[in-house]
Amino acid sequence: MPAPTHIVLSSEEKKQLEKNIKSRKTPVRLLERSKIVLLAATGLPNYRISEALNIEVNKVGRWRNRFAGKGLQGIEKDLPRGRNHGGKDSLKQAKLRSKIIKVTTQDKPKDATHWTTRSLAKVVGTNHTFVNRVWREAGLKPHLSKQFKVSNDPAFEEKLHDVVGLYLSPPENAVVFCVDEKSSIQALDRTQPGLPMKPGRCGTMTHDYKRHGTSTLFAALNTLTGEVIGECKKRHTHKEFLSFLRTVEKQTEKELELHIIVDNYATHKHEKVKAWIKRNKRVHLHFIPTSSSWLNLVERFFGLLTQKQLRRGVYTSVKELEKAIMRYVEAHNENKKPFVWTKSAEEILTKVGRARQALLYQQSI
């Protein structure tokens, strides 16, 4: 990758760029370009500037190079006529942009859950292409949403430190497993054969399907090696969980202790499971906080299994489904790599704290 263009600012150029950023009358595009150049002058690479300003890295490189070649004139040249720094049109456009951002983030349409470019354009009195441009520049995507849930577990911090400690500083003479069940995996057969991919057309498959039963995958992920121990079972009660624990324990060297990370599913806390743990002194269960499945690394393996094997799979029986699952586990183990945990408990607590404060603020307004 070539080194980014070196930017050196004169005192006059730096003063003008800072003025552009501070002024409320600066066109949005010039404001963005001024920020790019100022950050580039600090020596930051293009991808860092892209992350900081939430824009495409190619855009950063383009205006970095334009300034290096033509100075301030290079980043001001293609601004629309009549929209200079103090022109009436510039002020009018700036007010309209602010209104679009405010309505997008603070209001909802009467007949929908989110705005479209056309519905918002009708409300604010402009065209949908202008709304789309403002959204792109502001990084707004009303059509997208993400799911989340903040754990209310009273022992959240204690459990978090326990599990993250096992990831970042595992005990000596021990192996750490992340264990969970992927339940109700359906053996789905399509009602018609799919068409293969060819140049100019993606592969196709029918939207409807036939159900041929379900299976449950019990999996234990070795956090050090990335190896997975897996078994498919018809049910997922405490009996199957206890049977799987015995399998994991038998396949682990006798001189090693087992630290097993699990969620709060009732079968994991069954009295018979507790009794078996009590008899097997080298096995220790560690429970993640409630509503924190992201803390169990085996969920990452389940995600890859769904993406690579199950989502497009066609299975005419449960037996065929289970064979495909175990083939995937075997292939994974042949080229195993660990999932590396990087966040400390303190970093996670800080982020969770921000989320809780945001929720409290949202509830108060």
Describe what you observe in this structure.
By secondary structure, the chain is of the alpha/beta class. The protein has two domains: 1-79, no CATH class; 156-196 and 204-346, Nucleotidyltransferase, domain 5. Helix content is 48%, strand content 13%. It has 14 helices and five strands. It has helices at residues 11-22, 28-41, 46-53, 57-70, 72-76, 88-106, 117-124, 128-138, 156-168, 238-250, 271-279, 298-310, 318-334, 345-364; strands at 174-190, 209-222, 228-233, 257-262, 283-287. The chain has a five-stranded mixed beta sheet with strand order 3-2-1-4-5. Strand 4, helix 11 and strand 5 form a beta-alpha-beta unit. Helix 1 (11-22) crosses helix 2 (28-41), helix 3 crosses helix 4 (57-70) and helix 7 packs across helix 8 (128-138). Mean pLDDT is 89; it is low at 81-87.
Set out the fold topology.
Layout: H1 11-22, H2 28-41, H3 46-53, H4 57-70, H5 72-76, H6 88-106, H7 117-124, H8 128-138, H9 156-168, E1 174-190, E2 209-222, E3 228-233, H10 238-250, E4 257-262, H11 271-279, E5 283-287, H12 298-310, H13 318-334, H14 345-364
Parallel strand pairs: 1-4, 4-5
Antiparallel strand pairs: 1-2, 2-3
Question: In short, what is this structure?
Answer:
The protein has 365 residues and is an alpha/beta fold.
CATH architecture of the largest domain: 2-Layer Sandwich
Radius of gyration: 28 Å
Average pLDDT, all residues: 89
For this structure, what is the CATH class of the largest domain? Alpha Beta
Integer count of domains: 2
> What is the H/E string?
HHHHHHHHHEEEHEHEHHH
Strand content: 5-15%
> What coarse outline follows from CA principal-axis ratios?
elongated
Q: Given the structure, what is the number of helices?
A: 14
CATH fold group of the largest domain? Nucleotidyltransferase, domain 5
Stretches where pLDDT is under 50 for at least 5 consecutive residues are: 81-87
Identify the strand order in the major beta sheet. Answer: 3-2-1-4-5
Distance between the termini: 48 Å
Can you identify the CATH superfamily of the largest domain? Ribonuclease H-like superfamily/Ribonuclease H
Helix content percent band: 40-55%
How many β-strands, per DSSP?
5
Described by strand count, sense and barrel closure, the largest sheet is: 5 strands, mixed
Structural class: alpha/beta
